[in-house]
Amino acid sequence: MILYHFVCPVKYRRTVFTSDISKTFKDLCLKLELRYDIQFLEIGIDGNHVHFLIQSVPMNSPKKIIGAVKSITAKEIFRLHPEIKRFLWGGKFWTSGYYVNTVGQYANEEVIKKYLQNQGNSDYEKLHSDQLRLF
């Protein structure tokens, strides 16, 4: 199994993740696990972007994994929360790019999990104003 850290920004960096949309988003991700042979170890939502810690088999490329996650979640969020279209015109939920890195020797899984769990937590961000340090 390979462990990936993904970061996906919302189109136009709009802050669209309310508590309802965040719950819908996490539920959608969990439904994708069996279909794509992936496991979401953590999902960290921070208003205008999402961090994922995803474990998958080596046969699934990072592009395939994040392509499925982004396309299916975008389509379903627009369907289940049509009010979001006011903020994201043009029918796009995500930016076209994303960040991905494998988690291995130098990137401790527990450090990344803690970081993702505290996404959107302003108290945590005040205490740890530096970027996530992997080394």
Let me know the largest β-sheet. Answer: 4 strands, antiparallel
CATH fold category name: Alpha-Beta Plaits
Structural class: alpha+beta
Whole-number total of structural domains: 1
CATH architecture: 2-Layer Sandwich
Mean pLDDT: 87
Radius of gyration over alpha carbons? 15 Å
**Strands, count:** 4
Taken from the alpha-carbon principal axes, the silhouette is: globular
Helix content: 25-40%
CATH class categorisation = Alpha Beta
Distance between the termini: 22 Å
Care to describe what's here?
- It is built from four helices and four strands; from the N terminus they run βαββαβαα.
- With 135 residues, the chain is of the alpha+beta class.
- It has one domain (2-127): 2-Layer Sandwich (Alpha-Beta Plaits), CATH 3.30.70.
- Strands 2-3-1-4 form a four-stranded antiparallel β-sheet, sandwiched between helices.
- β2 and β3 form a beta hairpin.
